[in-house]
Specification:
This protein is α+β, with helices and mostly antiparallel strands. The protein has twelve helices and 15 strands.
Amino acid sequence: MPRAAREGRGGDSGIAHTDVKSRMREVHSPEQLKKLVEERLKDPDVAAWPNLVHVLKYPKNREFWFDIVMNPLDGDWYEERNPITLAENIDIPVYLQIDQGRGWTLDGHIELFNVLKGPKKLDIGSYPPMQSRPWIEEHDKMFRWYEYWLKGIDNGIMDEPAVSVFVEGSREVVTATQWPPKEIEYKSLYLRPRYKLSFEPEFMGAEYAAPDGFYQAPLTVTDKVEVLNWSTEPFEEPAELMGTGAAHLFAEIDQDDTNFILRLWDEAPGGGRQLITTGYLKASHRELDEERTAEGNPYHPHTRAVPVEPGRTQEYVLRLHPFAATFEPGHRLVAELSNNEPLVDAHNALLPPDAFHLPVGRPVTHKIYRDAVHPSRLVLPFTTATANGATRSGSSRDHEGDQLGCS
């Protein structure tokens, strides 16, 4: 969040103004730190953003953000501060509450819930993500929790399921002992020509199914964010999805790095949209930990950056953050790809100014291949009942159109 970095803030808490001192400034001499800063400024994404240049040049009162910008890779510096690691020592009762809407905020709560060893509960609420804090909507549950654990009042709260999930679309509340709250089966939605998503894979080669593409100039010279969209046909029956997902993109870029930002939307018949989940990947961080990667749940260690070979087509696997949604009949699933986040749209208008990922500081041309040799696709967690009777929306029409295209 460049705005927070500029102001030296940590979220809404203001913790970075005076209370947090830079560990980097403690560990390194001024001469060493100067060289490290010069090396960090070679990153064109950082160098193109004045807020971060200012943080690096003048870390006073921004020491919290100075350390973050100076440590772009995962490793020991973050691990010793990792709440998930620290949570292994927590055995007091913990009640976790989070709203859907951005995905990555939900991710940490689920990971924390799985690590905690003491009595615990997890409530996943409804969209949008930015509500009053602490959430007044949850006060009744909070009071019952405190009455039981602080006053010893047996109000039955611990007899209720540990996990409660609000499902977008159907607006149902599902309870269970774990996340995801239902059994799931991963199914693929393939990127197809004419900006379609289909349960059927593409059978034409790249010579007929030419790639989709876009050119993005740096946001220092334009305020327009280029976006590619692919969508399903309207669902004929409710389609329920819960869990994490993945996007497998076969892409070619003409620079040594870019961002891949994927957002999934539920689009209503009238055109109204609601964000369902997001996925982010810096191309140079594409490496996967194969031992920790599973279908629909890739794991990127982020411990080193490997520049991309310009002009080479390769597979990038994005992790789609946890979500729970039902696509009602007549609704479409829309996948939206860009390399920067749109500055203002149906979702970002809900967020504070500048609440986005660091933009790409170089001009990049992107080609997204989705043919028989390059099966770009979404791998999504359909609940078992939905998966077994999945509506193959538009698949016969797509096949017919492809046959016409071949002839």
